[in-house]
Design goal:
- The complex is a heterodimer of chains A (317) and B (474).
- Chain A is 73% helix and 0% strand.
- By secondary structure, chain A is mostly helical.
- Chain A has two domains: 152 residues, no CATH class; 163 residues, no CATH class.
- The longest helix of chain A has 30 residues.
- Chain A is globular and about 65 Å long.
- In chain B, the strands form seven sheets. A five-stranded mixed sheet of chain B has the order 5-25-24-21-20.
- Chain B starts with 12 loop residues before the first strand and ends with a strand.
- Chain B folds into two domains: 307 residues, no CATH class; 61 residues, Dna Ligase, domain 1, CATH 3.30.1490.
- Chain B is globular.
- Classes of the chains: A mainly alpha (317), B alpha+beta (474).
- Chains A and B meet through helix 1, helix 5 and helix 6 of A and helix 9, strand 9 and strand 11 of B.
């Protein structure tokens, strides 16, 4: 397969996943804003949301004060925000358009339809669009695209490069979503792990559609330890960091099988998997959740770079 | 057009009578309820939109991904009409290739005094880098698109040849696909020659011109300028149908004596490049140094027989409008045959006598820029007001060698769906002739239709539409 084709497939999957995470973050922010704040008024965690997405400064430069309506626009519709749902879906569609022949028509249809529907949203008056409508639409669209890939794509190297894109992006995004917690609680780091931030942990579960999963898997009351275990170390939960890394390893193993040769990328993914599966929740909290997540994100990004160098860049070996 | 309607050849009607080849279609139309037609029309559009056949029109604002209007009323050619076209097109494709081999070789036709040397060697499309190199099987132009117009029952003219990278064949294939899907009964009632062998023949043609250094199954790729090119859909469509990679310049590189493509498994050798980019962009080391679309060093590999390029660099000189007038002479000179297809009578403004005639008769003529394409930079005399004509006359006087002129032809008309039912609209025809080890031609082509009443401009960039083109089986 052409390296460029593989690259487009990989990024198409990454952008779809990224759109989904932005929508999930938007939902966390909007829901938090409905909760009363102990010091009066309502809670406002928008800054945490923007910081987790790494776009706080850009937002501030463009809009100034934090205002829910502006933030929603920024996260959903703003083409200047590279992580907005609109930017991600447009980018996914551009990538898909270039490699149309590597996609089945249901997959292309799903992406292209999303693009057309998004244009329709843009033409609709904002007061007629509820935030929940937008976030739900995004999740549904991402599920549809992923479902079409799963149901119709040939299981060849192209399929594995799409899978790699999804798993690498999702690992990064789950880590970021958890990390929102860190920003919310700043500067009082001592709160981490204390009982005070219960409702926020619960919200985090909601944002990952994981409330039921949690209840089925863990008994007793919600604690930060249990939630961290679910989102980081539980192999049964499909968005946990460990699941994502396992998934990336599987795809890299498949590619190595197809090509008849292993690579640095495969080794580095397996190393990450081994380290992560040895981790314990207590150690993570001892190191500091934020520090642990930062370290994980850096290694995940390193893996992405290696995949790029080995497969997607196409420099003659 | 201001041509007298009585002079326009109507392909369906002979006076008040329906021609036999259209009898079934006329019946089909008359028994079709209006609502059904509207429904089918939107179904067709939906199908086109969903498969993503769009045509990019730049610089006019609006949606850059537009649909070419599709007219559901097919255009019909009888078996005997097609037999003659088939013979004429193959003949022309052979002569054009013989001419190209000659012009980059011994230039016999020039020596014989049958074509002026300066027309060839001073031509911008004449590629110095191609002189003295004979491409595999002696083929320069592997896909020849011959644009035909009709003015009477037996009168077809060649309007122009396209020897570089004629586009539109994806519409020929998709129009048929969509008609068969929507109106299967039509294909049971009429015996229509299939066109879907085109992709297989194209692949075979490209494989047949693999370079001599190629051993084993030739690796074929299509080279596209990328997704922003107006014909990108067609490039990916053809790559998909043939099962070959669609590459951009950045995917290829030259090392040693070969061209390689960058794959996830390392470099893979490429043998045949069906390029859909212009000569000047092929190789920044040989042509335009600022080209980002090409492959540095490609021409060296080509000239040393490491890779085949289709069409071959330099093929464009054969389809230049100034060379066009000499094509019938090429047929006689190289093939020793009389041309089956006629050229449109053409005045070359480079010649003083012709130029005088053209300037005196501008209101009746169509004037084209020698190197223009796509219906841009032309004057349609009968459609233009006085000041436009005068402005154009000044341009001709300034650079006469830049222009040719032709009479305004009364292009034939085909029934076409309009709001009130059907009405005759002007059409042309572009069949696609494949030249490799053998010459192949699928029965059919792309019919373009000028949807505006009276208009003669069928170019999709200027609001033309397309139709399915039927050749009735023998």
């Amino acid at each position: 397969m052409l390296s460029r084709t593989a690259d487009h497939l990989y990024w198409l999957a990454r952008y779809m996943e990224r759109a989904e995470t932005t929508a999930r973050l938007l939902e966390v922010g909007a829901r938090t804003a409905l909760l009363p704040d102990p010091s009066g008024g309502y809670r406002n965690d928008w800054e945490a949301v923007l910081r987790a997405k790494g776009t706080y400064q850009q937002f501030h430069d463009k809009y100034g004060e934090l205002n829910q309506r502006d933030i929603e626009t920024w996260l959903f519709f703003d083409a200047e925000n590279p992580a907005s749902v609109l930017s991600c879906i447009n980018a996914a569609r551009e990538n898909a358009r270039v490699v149309r022949t590597a996609l089945t028509s249901p997959v292309w249809d799903a992406i292209n339809t999303a693009y057309q529907e998004l244009k329709q949203f843009q033409r609709t008056e904002r007061s007629k669009l509820m935030t929940s409508e937008l976030t739900e639409w995004t999740l549904r669209t991402c599920f549809l695209v992923r479902g079409c890939i799963l149901a119709t794509q040939l299981r060849n190297d192209g399929y594995d490069f799409m899978g790699l894109g999804t798993s690498i992006e999702r690992a990064d995004n789950t880590a970021r979503l958890i990390d929102v917690k860190y920003y919310v609680l700043l500067p009082s780091l001592s709160y981490v792990g204390s009982g005070l931030d219960q409702s926020q942990w619960a919200l985090l579960l909601q944002s990952m559609t994981a409330q039921r999963a949690f209840n089925w898997t863990y008994t007793g009351e919600i604690t930060a330890q249990k939630i961290a275990h679910l989102l980081i170390l539980n192999r049964k939960f499909p968005r946990s960091l460990l699941s994502c890394v396992q998934w990336a390893c599987d795809h890299l193993d498949n590619i190595a099988d197809i090509y008849g040769t292993g690579t640095r990328a495969q080794e580095s993914a397996h190393q990450l998997l081994t380290d992560l599966s040895r981790a314990e929740v207590d150690d993570i909290f001892e190191e500091g959740l934020h520090e642990f997540l930062g370290r994980f994100m850096a290694r995940n990004a390193g893996l992405a770079n290696t995949i790029h160098d080995v497969y997607l860049h196409g420099i003659p070996a | 057009m201001n041509a007298n309607p009585a002079q326009i050849f109507n392909e369906m009607m002979n006076g008040a009578e329906v021609r036999p080849s259209y009898a079934n279609l006329e019946q089909w139309y008359r028994s079709m309820p209006d609502e059904f037609r509207t429904l089918k029309q939107s179904e067709a559009e939906e199908l086109f939109r969903r498969v993503g056949i769009t045509f990019a029109v730049y610089g006019e604002g609006g949606d850059p991904e537009r649909l070419i209007p599709f007219d559901m009323f097919p255009r019909v050619l009888t078996a005997s009409e097609w037999r003659r076209l088939d013979k004429g097109i193959r003949q022309r494709a052979a002569a054009l290739n013989a001419f190209l081999c000659d012009m980059y070789g011994r230039r016999e036709m020039i020596r014989a005094g049958k074509i002026p040397e300066h027309l060839v060697t001073n031509n911008a499309a004449y590629e110095k880098a191609a002189i003295g190199f004979m491409p595999p099987k002696g083929v320069f132009s592997h896909i020849v698109g011959v644009d035909l117009v009709r003015t009477g029952p037996d009168q077809f003219y060649v309007l122009e040849d396209n020897c570089r990278t004629p586009s539109g064949v994806s519409y020929m294939l998709q129009n048929r696909e969509i008609m068969m899907r929507m109106f299967p009964q039509l294909f049971m009632e009429n015996r229509i020659a299939p066109v879907d062998g085109y992709a297989g023949l194209l692949r075979k043609t490209l494989a047949s011109v693999a370079p001599k250094k190629c051993t084993g199954e030739p690796k074929i790729v299509i080279l596209t300028p990328g997704q922003f090119n107006s014909a990108y859909y067609e490039h990916s469509f053809l790559a998909d149908l043939m099962g070959v990679e669609l590459v951009e310049g950045q995917d290829l590189f030259v090392e040693g004596d070969f061209v390689w493509m960058k794959t996830t498994e390392g470099p893979k050798k490429v043998d045949v490049i069906y390029r859909r980019i212009d000569d000047t962009f092929l190789d920044p080391l040989c042509f335009r140094p600022d080209s980002m679309l090409g492959v540095p060093g490609l021409m060296n590999v080509y000239r040393s027989g490491g890779v085949s390029i289709c069409s071959a660099p330099g093929a464009g000189v054969a389809d230049d409008k100034a060379i066009y007038t000499y094509v019938p002479e090429m047929v006689r000179f190289y093939l020793g045959e009389e041309p089956v297809l006629e050229n449109v009578p053409t005045w070359q403004c480079a010649k003083a006598d012709d130029c005088r005639y053209v300037l005196e008769n501008l209101p009746e003529l169509v004037v084209k820029e020698v190197h223009g394409s796509g219906g841009y930079g032309m004057l349609v005399g009968p459609k233009s007001d006085k000041s436009t004509i005068e402005a154009f006359a000044a341009k001709i006087r300034e650079k006469p060698e830049n222009y040719i002129a032709q009479p305004t032809l009364a292009l034939s008309a085909c029934p076409t769906f309009v709001d009130e039912g059907i009405a005759p609209r002007h059409v042309d025809l572009r069949p696609y002739c494949l030249v490799g080890e053998k010459i192949e031609l699928v029965p059919g082509g792309l019919t373009r239709v000028a949807l505006t009443e009276g208009s003669l401009v069928v170019n999709s960039s200027q609001g033309g539409g397309v139709k399915d083109t039927w050749v009735l089986a023998e």
